[in-house]
């Protein structure tokens, strides 16, 4: 399957749609997931267009992982989470809903179940506060 540049993350990367931005550089954007599975759920999105892991440029993959690690640590510090899940879905049967490669960082809190993937929308003010708290720790 091929990359479709009309996907929602491509539009966010082009600035055509808003997001709760945590971080951006020449190669990646980090933003809050607006339908979070837990408080602090963020997405790390490489700018190089690829549908998912299966068609990604290996160089883009190696370049993104240090940022995934940094953001994971910043989320842990900003949220006081007890753990964090890294998730990444490839094609619809595996749970992918947006077809531009991205990495989920989902904090986990002792005794609190994760919300379902693609659940309810979070409050914008809360997402904005989390985005700046995480950004401050990057
Ligand atoms: P996936 O199912 O792995 O493709 O994940 C797509 C993720 O993007 C889901 O967790 C959605 O909650 C999230 N999402 C969808 N639209 C937006 C948006 N406009 N801004 C931020 N996150 C979004």
Overview of the structural elements:
- With 138 residues, the chain is of the alpha+beta class.
- It has one domain (8-135): HIT-like (HIT family, subunit A), CATH 3.30.428.
- It is built from three helices and five strands, in the order H-E-E-E-H-E-E-H.
- A five-stranded antiparallel beta sheet has the order 1-2-3-5-4.
- Helix 2 (58-79) crosses helix 3.
Concise description?
This protein has 138 residues and is α+β, with helices and mostly antiparallel strands. It is built from three helices and five strands.
User: How many strand segments?
Assistant: 5
Largest sheet: 5 strands, antiparallel
Bound molecules: adenosine monophosphate
CATH architecture field:
2-Layer Sandwich
How large is the share of residues in beta strands?
15-25%
Order of helices and strands: HEEEHEEH
| Count of discrete domains | 1
- The largest beta-sheet arranges its strands as 1-2-3-5-4
Give the CATH topology: HIT family, subunit A
Poorly predicted regions? none
Helix content: 25-40%
Radius of gyration: 14 Å
Which word captures the global form? Answer: globular
The structure class reads alpha+beta
The CATH class name reads Alpha Beta
Under CATH, the homologous superfamily reads: HIT-like
Number of contiguous helices: 3
Termini Cα gap: 35 Å
Overall pLDDT level: 97
